[in-house]
Structures are given as structure tokens and as C-alpha cells.
Specification:
single chain; about 325 residues; alpha+beta; 14 strands; about 35% helix; globular
Length: about 325
């Protein structure tokens, strides 16, 4: 991938378009500064996770990893507040289903809202999310995307054993049904190709994507059996790691050219100079370095497991969530 321009400098954030070598746009690189603590923040205590939002730390999601690491029990409190204002029909018509235009729109909201998950570091907002892409023959878009959505309200289970590597989708609130007015409105946009993307956040501690915005849009796409546009937000390698990796990649490239040069010196011009092999490998490595996924940051929960259990009791009640506290 390469950089093309850098529109949008907001609150210390540098925004750069990412493209393939053929110029195809694939997403945005967000280099975030002056945001040491995100408003949407994961906390950990041993094998437990807590997701909070806002300055008051309102609990949104409690999760407990199985002792055998086969999956995660979760409980949603229903308090999630989307930081994306409602997307009006006139905006959808103006953007004409363009992932690039929508990604810049969401990037602005991510970098300016105090309730987004962004914090200092480098992030990718990708139009090519890492979701399971194979499917059985004859399975339509509605059935396929519906199978990626993790059920359960308010509690459920993320099955790592059966769905390992599929990176499913966990809604932050109960998915609306077909009769919901928002779903009905979005179904027309799904049919005419102007449905705004669903914004997902990859959370490595859950091994799945959380829906930051677009619950009704996802439901509408499933109802119409069309593939929804999706934008995936995830952390990527810090600049220091990119710099070190770049030096090593360039050194390996130069060593490979030198090896081919020695072969040419002894065996003649019939041996290629090595550029056709080493050049593409270097380009791929540099692209991987710039956008490689990195684990989601989480903060140690003050009070540890005892605090997590107390929050769980406050939100769920004694014995209300059978998950082996």
C-alpha cells in the first residue's frame, strides 16, 4: 500500500489514504496524538474484560473468558451511546455508497468525539475487513451475514472453538427486527446501493468485532439479503516498530540483490539481477509493516477481579448471569 494525500488534521490526528500498488483505495491510516485515554475503553482483570464509556466510566459490556479458552461469556448493559449522529438520507444520496467518502466521514467523528475508542497511536480504518469470506455454495448474503452476528440479549457466548478465526460481529445492543422503523427506512437504501457502511471495531481480547455504528443498517442488509458495506477500525503497528521493520526489510532487499549480483558475476548475464523477485517482496513487506494488525490496548482495572465482580453484581444482580464469576 502507498500513501496518497493527507486530508483532515484534527486534534493532532494525521489522516492518510491507503492504496494498493495499482492505485486502488483500500482505507485510511490514522495517526492519533493528544488522546491518551479513549472514551470507549476496555479494562482487564485476569481473564475478565470490562468495556466502559464516557468520563463516568459507564459499564457497557462485561466478559469472562472460559478457563479452557474455548470462548467468552458476555453481558451487555444496554447503555451504549453511539458517537455517530444519525445518518440522514440526503447524506447517503450525496455519498452514493462510496466507501472512501464514508471513511473520511467516520474518521472525522472518530477523531473528534470524546466517546470513540481512539487513543494515541496508529490506526487503520479499512474498507477490506478481516471477516470470514468463504461460505457454502448456495448461501445468500442474508444468511451468511446473519450467521456472523453473535446472538444473545442481554447475555450470550462468543464461541472461539467453533468460530476460531472467523472474527464474528458482536452488536453493542440488541439487533433491531424487520419491523423497526429504522430498518424499514434503510432497506430501501440497501436495495438501491446507497446504504452507509457498518462501522466495526476489532477487539482482540474478544476475538471479534464490535458494532460501533450501524445496527439497523446491518439488519436492513441482512433482511434484503445484500452484502453490507463495512469499515473496520483496528490498531496497527506503532511508528517505532515500522521504522525498525523498514530498516530490516531494506537490508534484506539489498542482501538479496547482492546475492544475485554474485551469481551473475560467476555465471553470467543469464542470471537475473534479482529485482523482479526482491522488489515485489519488499513492497509487500513494507505494506504489511504499515498496516499490520496489533492487539487492542486494554487498561488494568483498578481493584482487579474484586472490582469486576462488584460491577457485575451491580449491573446484573446476584445469580443473574450464570457464567462462573
Amino acid at each position: 500500500m502507498s500513501d496518497t494525500g493527507s486530508p483532515g488534521q484534527r486534534r493532532g490526528t494525521r489522516r492518510t489514504n491507503l492504496t494498493r500498488t495499482d492505485g486502488t483505495w483500500t482505507g485510511l491510516l490514522l495517526e492519533v496524538a493528544a488522546r491518551p485515554r479513549p472514551g470507549l475503553r476496555p479494562w482487564t482483570a485476569e481473564n475478565r474484560l470490562l468495556l466502559t464509556q464516557g468520563t463516568t466510566g459507564s459499564p457497557l459490556l462485561l466478559a469472562l473468558v472460559d478457563p479452557d479458552r474455548a470462548g467468552v461469556d458476555f453481558y451487555r448493559t444496554g447503555r451504549y451511546r453511539p458517537f455517530v449522529p444519525p445518518l440522514r438520507a440526503h447524506l447517503a444520496r450525496a455519498y452514493e455508497g462510496s466507501p472512501q467518502r464514508w471513511s473520511h466521514h467516520f474518521a472525522t467523528l472518530l477523531t473528534t468525539s470524546p466517546d470513540s475508542p481512539l487513543h494515541d497511536g496508529r490506526w487503520v480504518l479499512s474498507a477490506e475487513p478481516r471477516l470470514l469470506r468463504w461460505r457454502r455454495a448456495g448461501v445468500g448474503d442474508g444468511e451468511y451475514w446473519g450467521s456472523l452476528v453473535i446472538g444473545g440479549d442481554p447475555a450470550g457466548y462468543i464461541d472461539w472453538f467453533v468460530h476460531s478465526g472467523s472474527w464474528e460481529i458482536l452488536p453493542m445492543r440488541a439487533m433491531p427486527d424487520d419491523g423497526d422503523p429504522r430498518v424499514k427506512a434503510y432497506r430501501k437504501q440497501a436495495r438501491d446501493g446507497t446504504l452507509p457502511p457498518v462501522l466495526l471495531w476489532w477487539v482482540s481480547g474478544l476475538d471479534c468485532h464490535l458494532v460501533l455504528d450501524g445496527h439497523a443498517r446491518l439488519a436492513a442488509a441482512i433482511a434484503e439479503s445484500v452484502e453490507p458495506a463495512v469499515l473496520e477500525l483496528r490498531r496497527t503497528a506503532p511508528q517505532e516498530e515500522v521504522d525498525v521493520g523498514t530498516e530490516r526489510a531494506v537490508a534484506a532487499y539489498e542482501a538479496e540483490l547482492a546475492r544475485f549480483g554474485e551469481l551473475r558475476a560467476t555465471q553470467g548475464a543469464k542470471v537475473p539481477d534479482g529485482e523482479e523477485f526482491a522488489g515485489p517482496a519488499l513492497a509487500r513487506r513494507l505494506a504489511e509493516l504499515r498496516t499490520a494488525p496489533r492487539p487492542t490496548w486494554a487498561w488494568p482495572l483498578p481493584g482487579g477481579v474484586r472490582e469486576w465482580r462488584e460491577i457485575a453484581r451491580e449491573q446484573v444482580g446476584e445469580g443473574g448471569w450464570e457464567c462462573g464469576w
